[in-house]
Specification:
mainly alpha, two-stranded antiparallel sheet, 6 helices, Arc Repressor Mutant, subunit A, single chain
Amino acid sequence: MSADFDLDTFLPYLLNQAAEAASRSFAQVYRTKYAMTRTQWRVLANLGKFGAMTARDICRISHLEKTKVSRAVANLEERGWLSREPLPEDRRAEILRLTPEGHGIFDRLGAMAVDHDRHLRETLGPERAAEVAKILREIVALGKASGRDEEPG
């Protein structure tokens, strides 16, 4: 092992830890109110934001595993929060969309997410929050520019 390597200063590790810390308290909201997993929330949120799409689209946008998305979709459908219909051009794929009840849940959770985000930004202070957001967007752009679809390190 390299003597120069320190996990506590490794930027990908720090970013992951920060994402987990920032997400943990909001996870309590959707778990408590709707008994939802993180993957179910992310599927619901993507359908709420982007509209109808395939599970493959959700995997690509959210960097989620196919099996986790499949389980989340099945659960959300079972609960009446999303519907699926086969794509006419590819019967193996399905188009997913929120039901009216699913939209209602997305709207309520979305409002709570805005409050959660506002609290986090107020805690950091407006200037620091803006700087963090700017840096994170730059890191995302660097990742897209590299064209790598590999597992993160």
